Amino acid sequence: MERRVLGRTKLEVSVLAFGGAEIGYENASQETVDRLVAAALDAGVNVIDTAECYARSEEKIGTAVSGRRHEVFLFTKCGHAAGLAGEDWTAPLIGRSVDRSLRNLRTDYVDLLQLHSCSATILNRGEAIRALEDARDAGKTRFIGYSGDSADAMAAIQTGAFDTLQTSINIADQEAITLTVPSAVERSMGVMAKRALANAVWKYEERPPNAYYQDYWDRLQRIGYGFLRNCNLAESLAHALRFALSVPGVTTAITGSKSAERFRQNLTFIPPCTLPDDEFADIRRLWIKHASPTWSGQV
Asked: Distance (Å, rounded) from C-alpha 18 to C-alpha 42?
């Protein structure tokens, strides 16, 4: 699998990363997670991204990678109490959260520790950033990053403190392409696209009942991409994933699943990793034509 350098971290990361949200929120079994992680690593994926608040995701991933830690870069996030005593975004809480993450992941360090979508107000206080820097100085993480969107993500970039930006980039969410990604690249930050498949919301013929999917579904109805009408689901998913990986500055696309079969299908979408220039331009043109100013990046 193709690898790219993740900004100033100089980590050579696979263009596809395994995201751990779904296995946590949907309570995938340990057996399922073991199969998923093995399939990912065997295919050349070397990035697993999770978070303190994805239920038991960290714990299950830690078990699954325990014998193959040397093959994978472990990324996690912090900031929310997620069951710990203490106030979100404070240094004592972040310190305890990081220690819990290391226990859950069965490792002495993570490769990337990210603030988990906190506001510009929190960032400007400085305490949360200093807590990540303290974790780095203590050898608990190699690099620090920010995960989030829109004006808050821009505030994170402007601090100059972070090595990476993880932000929403997909066919239904393109604000970051002009708002934040160029500034991140200027500062040599590594950029990761989260929600790279836009939750595959176009597979629903009618507006989905789950509110989490509705905004993207509504946007795609308004834009009307031809490839979503003219391709089967697998082809359209491949097209969407390659779009995210075609955005200048994007290093890796994060996708998750609790189905080993479905994640293996994601792996078949690449290579090629990018769209032809004209197809990428068509998607951008339609977005620019139809997007509302209120269509901000989804946190």
From this structure: 12
DSSP reduced 3-state for 193: strand
The answer to whether residues 240 and 214 touch, using CB atoms and an 8 Å cutoff, is: no
Mean pLDDT within 255-272: 83
Determine the Cα–Cα distance for residues 95 and 133; give it in Å rounded to an integer: 11
In a domain, 298, yes or no: no
Is residue 295 a part of any domain in this protein?
no
Confidence of residue 298 (pLDDT cuts 50, 70, 90): confident
**Residues 26/36, Cβ–Cβ less than 8 Å:** no
Q: What is the largest CA-CA distance in the chain?
A: 53
Answer whether the bond into residue 208 is a cis peptide, omega within 30°: no
Q: How many CB atoms lie within 10 A of CB 219?
A: 21
pLDDT tens digits for 191-215?
Answer: 999 999 999 999 999 999 989 899 9
CA angle 200/201/207 to nearest 5° reads 165
Q: Residue 149: which CATH number?
A: 3.20.20.100
Domain limits at 212? 3-290
- Residue 5 CA, distance from chain mean position: 16
Can you list the alpha helix ranges (DSSP code H) found in the chain?
21-25, 30-42, 57-65, 91-105, 120-125, 127-137, 150-159, 175-179, 181-186, 211-223, 226-230, 233-246, 260-268, 277-290
**Sign of the CA dihedral running 273, 277, 279, 280:** positive
Q: How far apart are the first and last CA of the chain?
A: 29
Residue 22 lies in a domain: yes
Instruction: Label the pairing between strands 16-19 and 3-5.
Output: unpaired
How many separate domains does the chain show? 1
**109 located within any domain:** yes
Quote the CA–CA distance of 30 and 223 in Å, as a whole number.
39
